[in-house]
Amino acid sequence: MHSVRTLIRYVAPYKWLFGVFLLTIILEIIYSIAAPLSLKYLVDEAFAPKNIQAFVTILIVLLAGGTLSIAAGTYGDYTLSKLSGKVVQRLRTELFLHTQKQSMPFYQQFRIGDIITRFSSDMASIERVISGSLPLILKEALSVVLGLVMLCILEWKLTLAMVVGSVVMYVGPRLLQGRAEEANIHYREAQERFSNQIDETVKGHRTIKALHQQEAFLERARKQVEQLFRLGLNMHWINSLLERLPLTGLLLLNGIMIGFGGFLIFRDELTVGSFMAFFTLFLSVGQSASNLSFIVPNLIESGVSFRRIGEILDYRPDVPEAADSLELSSMSRDITMENVTFGYTEAAEQLKNVSLRIPAGSYAAFVGPSGSGKSTALQLLSRFYDPREGAVKMDGCDLRAVSEASLRRRTGIVFQDTFLFHATIRDNLLLDRTGDAVTKEQAMTDAARQAQIHDTILSWPDGYDTVILNEGASLSGGQRQRIAIARALLRDPELLLLDEVTSALDPASEADINRTIQELRRRKTIISVTHRLSSIVHADVIFVFRDGRIVESGTHSELLQQEGLYYEMWEKQHGFVLSPDGLHATVDEQRLGKLPFFSGIDPSHLRDMTSLFTTETFKDGEDAVREGEQGDKLYIIVRGRFEILKTTADAKEQRVAVLQDGDHFGEIALLRGIPRTATVRAMGPSVLLSVRRDVFLDLTRKHPHIYQTVERTLKERL
């Protein structure tokens, strides 16, 4: 079987341990076969003639052999424990290292539950086979072979009858093997789905609670548990049949042996002692053969587990390390993208023939509408992916030829979705930082001060020894982000990559971080992806992305003069005033006048309208509006990002767009209280300005032409 061959492959490196274990098994088997044979000599040579000397001699031999067998078995158990432990240790390490070498597509194909199930259930199944089934296979198989040889010596005719009858023991299990493998596969896949459901439920518990969806998720879990029950029942039932059929065959063989053996005794072709020895030895061989059949379900289960683990071990990284990779020297020249085309799938292209150059020591920014390709470009600079066409180079070296270790040493990355480990703040910051304790402590506090988080940490009872829980859920979004920035700065990278790092910060904290970035200029190369243009007005060069291409580039003032896409984005985000704590916002009349449905309204009336707006804040995962609800407000996004979700035919939510600073939604609700056509959900801490329909209508009663202007504009847009 496939699982047996795979087991042998993993056991092969430990030949000495395996050889010792095999020797102990052989000693045990020799005694187990010799013990039944002694009955022949006890009955025929000692009991029948009443020969006390022969009895004592046979007894001494049996006792000595039993002692040797016990000693061999005990040492064999120790050897087996060591052997199985080393094999499982090697397999676990190999699997873990392999997952660490994988690139992003691997984690898109295999979800968290898929990987965890392989490390837990599948690995446990393999461990059971290595420590239990493998030695049992060897022991019982050798027992059957040597036992059959001795049975032939005792009485070949009776042995031949037993061998023919034993075919029954294996026909049934062989016929059921395919169904058993299929049942095991379906059960493991159901376990994976349930593990993924648990992972998603735990991570999304706040959203589930906020939307009051506990009952819906409970019902989904009930269905999956019910499916696990049904598949598990089917699997265990088939496995029990695989074990039961050989026992039935063994009972049949007992009847054949007693009947045919009695016939040979009555014809004086077999002595009573020989029959007793044959019967006892047959029971031992039969038990060994039956035990082998019991192992079949375990082997099927382990075979499925080996295949599932093999799926991961056979997965080749999409971003492989070059065999003769180069060591990246100090970044002293520039970073370039040369005619880069890239898509996450073959059917789409997120970047199309992109070329850019960023001199070493400069501060560059990537901006553009959502989905324009700016974050994808940063992913390629991080070498989480390789371009489909073209090249990404640092100091003239293609990143595909550079060793990952040297690239990571010179690069610091801060993601929008900050991940912190379940450890103290000190452990999260230092990680692989080397040096003496005093130097590391000083560097850590300096980095924390730069990230504007040092004083906050000291205000906590445990300071830097505060344990971070649940991937950072015990901290605010801004605190998590600043700790991540401090962690990146502590590594003292030559290249600092920032992906929407201020999106979760209040205005005051954002200003602090922007000042930190300004202080780092010239000492490091900084590349920032952001949708908030006010944070990158001092950048040396700004690249504007749209539809996977760079459509504009230059400084802030140069881009404003071009009056292109960047100018439009700046105008859209301009005209808001946000309090330092980020809880209160206002909008001026000029900004309102740029909304298409307010265009043409007298500025004095727009000034009156600004007082109608109220500030609303939303947490990550909260809904501003839900599909199907009655519409009664217009919203303008002051800070934050929102995804637009529509319900598909199979009752799932599908993202159709992403809105960010300066965008608006819900304008139809100003005139008509019709149901919302989509759900709008916050993708992080967000601030909105909203105006209710009834308040707006009160204003239009005083100034009817406002209503007419808005109605005419909306009709034209619809």
Main sheet strand line-up: 6-7-8-3-9-10
Query: How large a portion of the residues is in β-strands, by DSSP E?
Result: 5-15%
Helix content: 55-70%
Query: Uncertain segments of ≥5 residues (pLDDT<50)?
Result: none
What kind of sheet is the major sheet? 6 strands, mixed
Write the layout of secondary structure elements.
Layout: H1 2-11, H2 15-47, H3 52-100, H4 104-109, H5 112-154, H6 156-203, H7 205-210, H8 214-266, H9 272-313, E1 334-342, E2 351-359, E3 363-367, H10 374-381, E4 389-394, E5 397-398, H11 404-409, E6 411-414, H12 425-430, H13 437-450, H14 454-459, H15 477-490, E7 495-499, H16 507-520, E8 525-529, E9 541-546, E10 549-554, H17 556-562, H18 565-573, E11 576-578, E12 585-587, H19 589-593, H20 603-610, E13 614-618, E14 623-625, E15 633-639, E16 642-647, E17 653-659, E18 664-665, E19 679-682, E20 686-692, H21 693-702, H22 704-717
Parallel strand pairs: 3-8, 3-9, 6-7, 7-8
Antiparallel strand pairs: 1-2, 1-4, 4-5, 9-10, 11-12, 13-20, 14-19, 15-18, 15-20, 16-17, 16-19
Helix pairs in contact: 1-9, 2-3, 2-5, 2-9, 3-5, 5-6, 5-9, 6-8, 6-9, 8-9, 13-15, 21-22
Keywords:
718 residues, Jelly Rolls, Rossmann fold, alpha+beta, four-stranded antiparallel β-sheet, six-stranded mixed β-sheet, elongated
